[in-house]
Amino acid sequence: MKRIARLFGWLTLLIAVPAIAATPDVAALSPPALSALTRAFPKGGELHLHLSGAVYGESFIKWAAEDGRCIDTDALSIEQPPCAGKLKPAAEAQADLDLYHAMLDSFSVRHPGFRDRSGHDQFFSTFSRFSFGRSRRGDGLAEVMDRAAAQNTFYLELMAFGGPQTLGPLVNAAPGDVNDFPALKASLSAAGLEKLTADMVAETDAMEARARTVMACGTPAARPGCQVTVRYLAFASRNAPAKITFAQIQLGVAMTRADPRFVGVQVLTPEDDPVAVANYALVARMFDFLSDHGRSAPLALHAGELTLAVATPEALRDHVAQAFRVSGARRIGHGTDIAHEDGAEALAREMAAAKVLVEVNLSSNAAILQVKGADHPYGWLRARDVPVSLSTDDPGVSRTDLSTEYALAVRYGADYAALKASARNALAFSFLAGDGLWADPGAYRTPAASCRGQIGRAEPAGACAALIAASDKAREQWRHEALLARFEADLP
Ligand SMILES: [Zn+2]
C-alpha cells in the first residue's frame, strides 16, 4: 500500500509538472520588468543574423584605430591608410567626440533622417562605410558569441561567407549561359568551383581560431561566449550578375557537403534592388535546381522584405510564394509583405502545413520599411499557425539585441507562450544536424519517444542520452530545455 501510495505520489508529481509551469503575464509587466525578464529568458538561438551587421559601431572604430586605419570625415566611413587630407587617423576619431558620435550615427539607424536618408537607404548604405577587414572577422564573431551567452542564448546560425575573392574571375572565365542550368553547373565544376570550398573552410578556421583567442576559450579565463554553438549559412547575392549568383549558390551547396559547420544556403542584398527584382524568378529557379528543391541543401531565403514605398505592387505579389513553392525554402527571412501576396491566406495555410518558418525581425522592419505595430504580420502569422522565430537581423545597425526584440514582441501582442515557442523554434527549425528532441516541432506537446518524461532534467538517461549523443540538434534542445526549466523555476 505504501509502495502504491508512493507510486501514486510520483505519478501526480509527473502529471502536475506541466500544470505548475509558470506562465508570467508578460503584457502586464512594466517596460523595465519586461526587459529584465526577456534578458534572462533562454531564447534558444538566433536563425537570422548577419555577422558584419551584428557588430556595433564602437567596435569598428576601436579596431580601425588599433589597426592604423583612417576615417573619411566627409563620408563618415572607415578607409585604408595612408591617412591624409579628409582621411584622418581613426585613433583621432576616438578623441574627437563630435566625430565619434557622427561615426556612430553613420554606422546605424539610431539618428532618424541622418544626412536626409530614408531608413531604408541609411540601413543598407551603412555596410559600405564600416568595412570589416578580414583580419577582424574573428573579433566580430567573439563579440556576437559573447553577447548571445550574456543573454542566456547559446546557438547562432550566422550568415557569414559569400565565397572567396577568386570566385569572380573563375566564373567569368567559365563558359555557360544562365538559362541552361545543367550546362552552366557542369562548366563551373570543370573550372574548379567546388575546389573553392577549401578556401572557405580555411577562412572559417581562421575566424574561429581568432574568436577563441579573443574569448580565451580553453583557459580558466574563458568567456561565456565559448559555450555558444555556431553554424553558418553560405550566401549568394541577388543583385550580382546572374552567373555569379548561380555560382555562389552552387558553391554554397558544395559547402554544406564539405564542412559540417555550414548547414544551409541563404540569399542576400536588398530585395528591391533593380537587378534583384529583374532576376527574382530566375534566381528562385536556380535555388530549386542547385539544391534539388532544398533536399540536398536546406534553404533559408530572404523574401518579402518589401513595401510599396520601395517596390512595385507586382514585386509584392509572390516573392514569399516563389521562395517556398519554387525554390523549396524551409525558412523565409522577414516575409514582411506576406499579407500583400496573391492568395495570402492560402499561402499561409500551405506554409503552416509544411512547417515553413518565418524569421521575424521587428526592429529591422521598423527601421528599413516602417512596418511596425499592428501593421506587422507577426500576429497574423501566429494566428495562422505559421511557425515564427524572433531574430535581430543586423543588431549593430539597428542598435538592438535579441532580448530587446523579445520585449518588443510583447508590445506587438506576444504572450509568454509565444515567446517560448519562438525560442524553441530557433532550435527545432535550425538546420542543425540530427533528429530533434520533439516529435511535434512547433507544438512541443510530445517529446521524442526516447526522451518522454525526461525533458527539463539536468542529465539525460538511457535511449534519450543516446539520441543526444548522436544529434547536434537534440543536444542543443536538451541544453535549452534545462535552461528553460531553471528559468521558470526561478520565476516569482
Ligand atoms: Zn537579413
Write a brief caption for the model.
The protein has 23 helices and eleven strands. It is α/β, with parallel strands linked by helices.
List keywords for this structure.
11 strands; single chain; four-stranded parallel beta sheet; globular; 492 residues; binds zinc ion; alpha/beta; TIM Barrel; disordered N terminus; 49% helix
Structure in words:
There is one protein chain. The strands form three sheets. Strands 1-5-6-7 form a four-stranded parallel β-sheet. Strands 8-9-10-11 form a four-stranded parallel β-sheet. It has a three-stranded antiparallel β-sheet with strand order 3-2-4. The chain folds into three domains: 46-52 and 134-428, TIM Barrel, CATH 3.20.20.140; 57-129, no CATH class; 433-492, no CATH class. The longest helix is centred in the N-terminal third of the chain and has 19 residues, at 2-20. With 492 residues, the protein is an alpha/beta fold. It is built from 23 helices and eleven strands. The chain binds zinc ion. Zinc ion (ZN) is lined by residues 48, 50, 302, 333, 393.
Strand order across the biggest sheet? 1-5-6-7
Number of domains: 3
The helix tally amounts to 23
- What is the tally of beta strands? 11
- On the 0-100 scale, what is the average pLDDT? 94
What's the CATH architecture name of the largest domain?
A: Alpha-Beta Barrel
Which stretches are low in confidence, meaning pLDDT under 50 for 5 or more residues running? 1-20
CATH superfamily of the largest domain: Metal-dependent hydrolases
Instruction: Write down the oligomeric state.
Output: single chain
At the first level of CATH, what is the class of the largest domain?
Alpha Beta
Strand-pairing-aware structural class: alpha/beta
At CATH level 3, the topology of the largest domain is: TIM Barrel
Q: What characteristic shape results from the CA principal axes?
A: globular
Q: Which ligands, by name, code or SMILES, are bound?
A: zinc ion
Alpha-carbon Rg, integer: 23 Å
End-to-end span in angstroms? 37 Å
Query: In which range does the helix fraction lie?
Result: 40-55%
Please report which band the strand proportion falls in: under 5%, 5-15%, 15-25%, 25-35%, 35-45% or over 45%.
Answer: 5-15%
Largest sheet: 4 strands, parallel
